[in-house]
Design goal:
single chain
Length: about 90
Protein backbone atom coordinates (compact mmCIF):
# COMPACT_ATOMS: atom_id res chain seq x y z
CA UNK A 1 0.00 0.00 0.00
CA UNK A 2 1.48 3.36 -1.03
CA UNK A 3 1.37 6.19 1.42
CA UNK A 4 -0.12 9.45 0.27
CA UNK A 5 3.25 11.20 0.62
CA UNK A 6 5.14 8.70 -1.55
CA UNK A 7 3.86 9.97 -4.90
CA UNK A 8 6.52 11.88 -6.82
CA UNK A 9 5.24 13.91 -9.74
CA UNK A 10 7.44 13.88 -12.82
CA UNK A 11 6.19 17.43 -13.41
CA UNK A 12 6.80 18.78 -9.88
CA UNK A 13 9.21 21.39 -11.23
CA UNK A 14 6.28 23.07 -12.99
CA UNK A 15 5.35 24.44 -9.55
CA UNK A 16 8.84 25.78 -8.78
CA UNK A 17 11.31 28.31 -10.10
CA UNK A 18 12.55 25.56 -12.47
CA UNK A 19 9.30 25.59 -14.45
CA UNK A 20 10.79 27.29 -17.50
CA UNK A 21 13.63 24.75 -17.80
CA UNK A 22 11.16 21.86 -17.60
CA UNK A 23 8.76 23.58 -20.01
CA UNK A 24 11.64 24.02 -22.47
CA UNK A 25 12.51 20.31 -22.24
CA UNK A 26 8.88 19.25 -22.61
CA UNK A 27 8.38 21.67 -25.50
CA UNK A 28 11.23 20.08 -27.43
CA UNK A 29 9.81 16.61 -26.80
CA UNK A 30 6.19 17.46 -27.64
CA UNK A 31 6.48 19.97 -30.46
CA UNK A 32 4.74 22.69 -28.47
CA UNK A 33 6.46 25.90 -27.42
CA UNK A 34 7.31 26.72 -23.80
CA UNK A 35 4.37 29.05 -23.30
CA UNK A 36 1.95 26.41 -24.59
CA UNK A 37 3.43 23.82 -22.22
CA UNK A 38 3.09 26.15 -19.24
CA UNK A 39 -0.44 27.19 -20.25
CA UNK A 40 -1.50 23.57 -20.71
CA UNK A 41 -0.11 22.57 -17.30
CA UNK A 42 -1.93 25.42 -15.59
CA UNK A 43 -5.18 24.61 -17.38
CA UNK A 44 -4.98 20.91 -16.50
CA UNK A 45 -4.13 21.78 -12.89
CA UNK A 46 -7.02 24.24 -12.61
CA UNK A 47 -9.49 21.76 -14.08
CA UNK A 48 -8.44 18.76 -12.00
CA UNK A 49 -7.71 20.52 -8.72
CA UNK A 50 -10.91 22.57 -8.67
CA UNK A 51 -12.38 20.56 -5.79
CA UNK A 52 -9.24 19.21 -4.09
CA UNK A 53 -5.74 20.24 -3.14
CA UNK A 54 -3.00 20.08 -5.76
CA UNK A 55 -1.27 17.36 -3.74
CA UNK A 56 -4.40 15.19 -3.80
CA UNK A 57 -4.94 15.86 -7.49
CA UNK A 58 -1.31 15.41 -8.57
CA UNK A 59 -1.62 11.89 -10.02
CA UNK A 60 -4.63 12.87 -12.14
CA UNK A 61 -2.99 16.16 -13.17
CA UNK A 62 0.10 14.23 -14.25
CA UNK A 63 -1.93 11.62 -16.12
CA UNK A 64 -3.82 14.25 -18.12
CA UNK A 65 -0.78 16.45 -18.72
CA UNK A 66 1.25 13.47 -19.97
CA UNK A 67 -1.65 12.47 -22.22
CA UNK A 68 -1.72 16.01 -23.64
CA UNK A 69 2.05 16.00 -24.30
CA UNK A 70 1.83 12.57 -25.92
CA UNK A 71 -1.10 13.65 -28.10
CA UNK A 72 0.77 16.79 -29.17
CA UNK A 73 3.79 14.74 -30.19
CA UNK A 74 1.83 11.90 -31.81
CA UNK A 75 -0.62 14.12 -33.70
CA UNK A 76 1.88 16.92 -34.29
CA UNK A 77 -0.78 19.26 -32.99
CA UNK A 78 -0.05 22.64 -31.47
CA UNK A 79 -3.69 23.56 -30.82
CA UNK A 80 -3.58 23.48 -27.02
CA UNK A 81 -7.30 24.07 -26.58
CA UNK A 82 -8.10 21.00 -28.68
CA UNK A 83 -5.49 18.97 -26.81
CA UNK A 84 -6.96 20.10 -23.48
CA UNK A 85 -10.46 19.11 -24.60
CA UNK A 86 -9.19 15.70 -25.67
CA UNK A 87 -7.75 14.91 -22.22
CA UNK A 88 -10.70 16.24 -20.21
CA UNK A 89 -13.23 13.45 -19.63
CA UNK A 90 -16.01 16.08 -19.38
CA UNK A 91 -14.96 17.62 -22.71
Amino acid sequence: MCSRNSYQSPFAAMLTDDRYALATKLAKESGLDQSQVMYAYLQVTATVAADQTIHEAEPEIDRRFQALLTAAKTNRSTNVDRLLAAVDPKG
